[in-house]
Amino acid sequence: MERVLVLSSHTHPRLASPLNHRAYCERQGFDYIFDATRYHNRNAYDQKINCILAHLGSTDWLCWMDEDAFFMDHTKSLRDFIPAGNDIGVVLCKSPGNLDKWTVINSGVMLFRNCELVRELLKAVLKTDLRAVKKWWNPELHGYFSKGDQDLLVYQLMNRNFKKPDVTILPCEAFNARPFHYQKSYDEYFICHFAGVKHKDKNKAIGQFQKKFQLTEALMPLQRIAG
Prior knowledge:
The protein has 227 residues and is an alpha/beta fold. It has helices spanning 17-28, 46-56, 116-127, 130-136, 139-142, 149-159, 172-175, 199-213, 222-226; strands at residues 4-9, 31-35, 61-65, 69-71, 88-93, 106-113, 166-170, 191-193.
């Protein structure tokens, strides 16, 4: 069976999401790494790509989790989204289509196969000039320009001149649901991503979700901790 590594990183962690990620991985039997290493980055957005490249070789499939993304249904496996065979190298989700600031993909939660073509893709992202991407960007085709790694990734997926790894883009509900999707229960969807919330408001938004469903700061049910 292929190994799965869940990876998250922040040089100044502020949220309890690593506790959530680790608890999920322990239940599912996946490897987990929280990497606080400060890589040689051009900007803050390169941290994510450098971190993925640093750990991709240690597993078969790597799942990147942004700091503001939480596993909500711990019974569901990431393996459900891993394609059979070797044809697919990247699995992504769209953003919700009903947002004013929609994007063609979201880079907050991503699955990468450990293969040379994926490494080439990520290295190309690191070399891409964001100013050139901004000139190329078409809001009608690509959505909101977020000024970060997501835009660089969109650019490379659509324009790189080397052989591409095939990419699967799933609906946002697969593993990029937002807080407003959760109406009935905390585990109504697999992953909750607090994307689009300003940094200064992030803790408040997470706290409101926590209070709504009576969860811990790591967005897990109290009885799971108690039991």
